[in-house]
Amino acid sequence: MLEELQGKGLLIHHWDADGICSSRLLLEYLADRDMTNKTPELGNYFLTEKELADYSNYDFVIVADMALPEENILRLAKNAKIMIFDHHLGKEIKEVFHHNPVIKGENPDEYPSASWIVNDFLGNPVNLFSLLGVVGDHEQKIKNNTLFSKILLDFCQDSNLEFDDLLKAVYLLDSNYKLGDKKAVETAPQLLLSYKSADDILDNDQWNKNFTMLNKEITKQLEKTADEVQGIILKKIDTPYNIISTITRKVAWENGKNTLVINTGFFDDKDQVYVRSSKNLEHMIQRGKSLGFKCGGKREVLGAILPKDKTDSFVEEIMEFLTKN
Ligand SMILES: [Mn+2]
Question: Ligand 1 centroid vs 85 CA: distance in angstroms?
Fold first, then answer.
């Protein structure tokens, strides 16, 4: 399939370690083609009108590690051949090549990252980049996956690495999007083409500087006091960095309580809201979507991007939901 692609190609990928590593693998395979790689505006799980217009002049478009809306994909498909490699839940887009074993009913534990799916599709042996995507998406929790904990252990032994080295490498790759540096995210897969080992990633000066700066900011935000309302931790932060999920996780784990964090500083015109709860949040995710907000997550996690004038009312609804019985 990939062999047949002709002309100018665009690769659109998620901004995180899995998206970057998936791109690295695809760019290596397509080294003799004319390829450009882009990530969406950071925080957007869709393409803007401007992006759709800019991306209408390619002969083929590959999407990696992102469940872009069907309308976006069908728009791109008017002018280009489309291939999607993904592992997120969602609906199959039948009009294009949509390689996502998870939505075709395969066991998600056997396909824990887009990088793994891409690598498998390319027929490569297990390698650093196929596994960094896995570690990036699951962190420590991958150790509970019997199949992959074994694959990771074997890989670490063969390459003389610790699991924590892989985790650090992933944090370094993720530092680019957390700092809001879209250009650096797009440069990362290119850089990785010249990297041969995890040490090359661990030795990247800029990424280490990013990592230190982010840790400082996370510590600073964690030190500010949070409110507790009817047993729920409510924390407001104002940071230009995309660290809300990290902050929420740390606050929730430290307090052992349902936690809601609002960040007013990442977007100019919108707020980020993030919730971790022991109560199933799927109902509130649906509610957020039905109100027209960008809203997603899973059982125990809700993330939403809200117009600033809608934040208070939606937060109030979530608080009500969490305190009800
Ligand atoms: Mn992923």
Answer: 10
pLDDT in tens, 198-237: 999 999 999 999 999 999 999 999 999 999 999 999 999 9
pTM over 0.70: yes
Q: Same domain for 15 and 150?
A: yes
Q: How many other β-carbons are positioned within 10 Å of the β-carbon of residue 184?
A: 17
Position 253 scores a pLDDT of 86
CA of 309 to the centre of ligand 1 (A): 32
- Which of 73, 101, 97 minimizes the C-alpha distance to 87? 101
Give the whole-angstrom CA distance, residue 149 versus residue 225: 38
Q: Tokens 């980020």 sit at which residue?
A: 272
194 and 289 both lie in a single domain: no
* Closest residue by Cα to residue 284 from 310, 248, 320: 320
Which domain covers residue 269, as residue numbers?
A: 224-323
Model pLDDT for residues 37-74, shown as the tens digit of each residue: 999 998 888 899 999 999 999 999 999 999 998 999 99
How many whole angstroms from 23 Cα to the centroid of ligand 1? 11
Q: What DSSP line would sit under 217-251, residue for residue?
A: HHHHHHHS--EEETTEEEEEE--SSS-HHHHHHHH
* Count of domains observed in the chain: 2
